[in-house]
Protein 1
Amino acid sequence: MPSNRAAWIPARNAPLEVGPAPITAPGPDQVLIRNQAIAVNPLEWIIQVAGRVAYTWLKYPFVLGADVAGEVVEVGSAVTRFRAGDRVLGLAVGTDKDANSSAQGGFQQYTLLSERLTSPIPDSLSYVDASVLPLGLSTAASALFQADHLALNHPGAHPAPTGETLLVWGGSTSVGSNAVQLAVAAGYDVVTTASPRNAGWLTDLGAGQVLDYRSPTVEADLIGIFGTRKFAGALAVGPGSAAACVRIAAASPGNRFVSMATAPVTFENGFSPPRTAAGMVGGMVGLQLSARRRGVRIRFVIGSDLKKNEVADAIFRDFLPDALAEGRYRALPQASVVGSSLADLQAALDLQRKGVSATKLVVTL
Ligand SMILES: NC(=O)c1ccc[n+]([C@@H]2O[C@H](COP(=O)([O-])OP(=O)(O)OC[C@H]3O[C@@H](n4cnc5c(N)ncnc54)[C@H](OP(=O)(O)O)[C@@H]3O)[C@@H](O)[C@H]2O)c1
């Protein structure tokens, strides 16, 4: 067995430190992969700055990281879809409460993945491009397809038009660009919001209309649009999106449901424990009350929740492999390589925290 190295977070609020790490043999339903590219997400720097209120169960030192692509080196006894040498992408779920496992973290050379959260990738897709997908894809799929979220039809190669329109607030985010593609592949029309510079590629993905979320009339404009359509619900991504989506859903005929990906408080400018915790609870309660008053249902989505139900298989096994191989699904947002070793992951997190536009920051190994 080769040796492993990881970018550890030694304690809450501490910067990542590269050091040796064990390699764990895969359990029956797991695959062990040698990572070639790792993408970073807001989740990882949020845990780093706000570990006292977010993901409080993590046992430090810990290996964070959700988005990986690489080569399978070993498979568990019950794994049937993969063998050593396969090129794959996968969602690493080490930070989940039921895992709480550094062996399943992405920020290292060797990561254990669940077979159900792993997809083969075609030779035409680089590891760098593949690594942008897992968490954005999983979060969008959890919101769109789970029975207790928007419960949309599943995506496929030849979707029957549903005649319904989904609102994706924040289409140029990682979550949003996957949501737009998944909804279109499931037969829905999509209306989305983004900065005007990102409207072109979102339209190419199939979004019917792209509105500027900074426009003072965006809510009224969306209410006007949905007044004449059948509303499939909304996925709210980005600060302030949930409250706006609740008001739009309340005025729209159809599925008055908002699946919410962004927490009610932001962490970009730091974190103060009592204020942030109060803002989190108060923000969620306020949103729930506002939604209930308006006859709208709202629910926070957890990006890895699809592993608990049929949605994981629908996406990672039944949809994504063929969709990627046939060029029906694009690896977006566009990758930007910002490092070439585990030691570069901290700078990548710092850059992500400053804000990106339609870009996924990737470190190669
Ligand atoms: N619940 C979960 O499990 C889960 C999982 C993944 C992500 N998230 C959350 O989802 C959000 C997006 O994450 P991500 O990785 O997809 O983000 P990202 O790609 O880093 O987001 C960058 C994008 O955010 C857009 N944006 C900024 N403010 C916005 C606003 N007020 N409304 C709409 N769009 C806005 C920008 O759009 P323009 O450049 O077009 O202006 C930019 O393209 C974050 O809040 C993250 O914490 C949650």
Protein 2
Amino acid sequence: MIKYLDLQRINASFEPELSDALLRVSHSGWYLHGEATAHFEQEFANYCGTAHCIGTGNGLDALTLIFLAYRELGVMNAGDEVIVPANTYIATLLSVLRAGLKPVLCEPSPETCNICVRHAETLITGRTRAIVPVHLYGRLADMEGVHNLANRYGLKIIEDAAQAHGAIYDEGLPGKENQPWRAGNLGDAAAFSFYPAKNLGALGDGGAITTHDAELAAIARSIANYGSTEKYIHLYQGVNSRLDELQAAVLSVKLPRLNKDNARRREIAKLYKENIHWEHLNLRSTVHAGDINEANVFHIFPIFSSRRDELQRHLAAHNIHTQIHYPIPPHRQEALRQEYGMQQLPIAERIHNEELSLPISPLLTDEEAGQVIDCINAFV
Ligand SMILES: Cc1ncc(COP(=O)(O)O)c(C=O)c1O
């Protein structure tokens, strides 16, 4: 059987360091706001190349806290608009709504599944304050296009980097050409998720904000801690969202191997790209041979087919597990019916109807990838 993602195998490969780290925290008697969290925050800020990193309870909170902090700073006010891609996990939209702002949905580019900057420009109004490039499936969005747009219209750029730990934008951003930049450091602020299945995954929930902006960082950190910087003094109506000591210690064990793990994911992507009979099977890929580089950390390897459900059943019958990211787009969810009930977003909808995610992980062997390829190529 080939699992979609074998978390047990992945986590076992970090032993005995993982269990040692957990025991150290367990024996320390200190479980929140301690050394392990401060240590990981510093390491992750260094890794992303930002001045600040704030651990949070999860990725949804990381995004929400960024928007709440901008609200406190007066950069964004209730009802202001934020452009987000229509094909993302619902968390991106919920974070904007939670902060009392309005997510305006933008079609993706069918070639990349990431936000289409040309469509984004048509959505800008006098109330637009920010744009959220989601680096979907682990592939960096068109950050040069996003920066050009943001510069022209005075927008904040908030990266949803929940799926893109370690991805490098090596083309250089406007004004910063010839410098490699990592996800988390490509806008004004970024949110990460350390959900267990992510490229950098905890053993439970976790998240982080990265930013160069000291004021934003201080306010977000305070809101995450009940709006307090000093015990029992509350400046903001905050929330309780913490990266705890156990999860931080786990992440510190895993971070040093992230680049190597991402490189292995790229090797598997290359096997899929080169060996699946795309045209013969009428399958589409948004990954082109020249795209298998550091700008994509292949959190997900998506393929697209009008016969997606049949193909998924065919693979399952041969004990190969796949997933769909995502079966229903956010604007078609019952939870958001009031906000988007009648909106048509045909490009995003087609992606949701046709996407199938193949098994990919740093521990998937060439032989297992070969079995997936053979099984797909045998699909008639
Ligand atoms: C694109 C995207 N944004 C946000 C999130 C939210 O992260 P979390 O599940 O840690 O709250 C996720 C992950 O689930 C995600 O994939």
